[in-house]
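Data availability (excerpt). The following record was deposited with the supplementary files.
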Amino acid sequence: MKKIALFLFTLLLTAGLAQADTNIRVDGSTTVLPAMQKIVEAYMKANPGVNITVSGGGSGNGIKAIIDGTTDVAMSSREMKPKEFEAAKEKGRVVKPVEIALDALAPIVNPANPVTGLTAEQLQGIFSGKIKNWKEVGGDDKEIVAISRDTSSGTYEAWQELIMKGQKVTPGALLQASSGAVLQVVGKNKYAIAYDGYAYVNSTVKALPVNGIAGNEKTVADKSYPVSRPLFIIVPEKTTPEVQKFVDYIMDPAKGQKMIGEVGYFPIKK
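Predicted structure:
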């Protein structure tokens, strides 16, 4: 009888320990994803009882998930829209965006492309379909292959606002579902052009200055670079202590903010 009682006590203790684990769900922007993955890995290592799952389905999907209550933290590379705040209220939820970093949105081409820079006007012409050949902007006599993020992406919406200014991206553009996919396509095609978050730029692509100004920490901070934007996480106004602790970690200059800088974005706090 004592053995049975001891077994039941052990079983209950094990179940209690399992329930004591904290599970946090993070969903949204693939732009924010590299920084978030690095932060989550470090946070779980420092907090063994915390399990964090991260999905990068795009800013729009992340915002929808925080509105629906299917994620604890949303990642977004754009600001929330008034209609999204209203949708949250209609479901009895009040959410708050937290700015965690700044980003230079970079036009990228294949390293073999001889073009060394473009103006905002030329970029608008390329992505609207008015400029179709690289020779029109100082390149080879070859057709331009425009690559764009899909419409659920915050990066797409930022490009629409900062470069397209009301004009639509040409239907001929090849849409990609993630920042990583954009990078792969441009890296393999000499005549492709796309736009991506600064942290994704590596040796497989070449980032172009815009209006003669390169995107970097200084030009983003002083707002001289014309294609910069804030990056966000979005959480419920009244969140759990466990989620708030994770948010505080992200905003800590010596922890999450430091890692954001290491990935290639520009931290808000230093």
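Summary of structural features: The beta strands are 22-28, 50-55, 73-76, 95-109, 145-149, 174-176, 192-197, 206-207, 228-236, 266-267.
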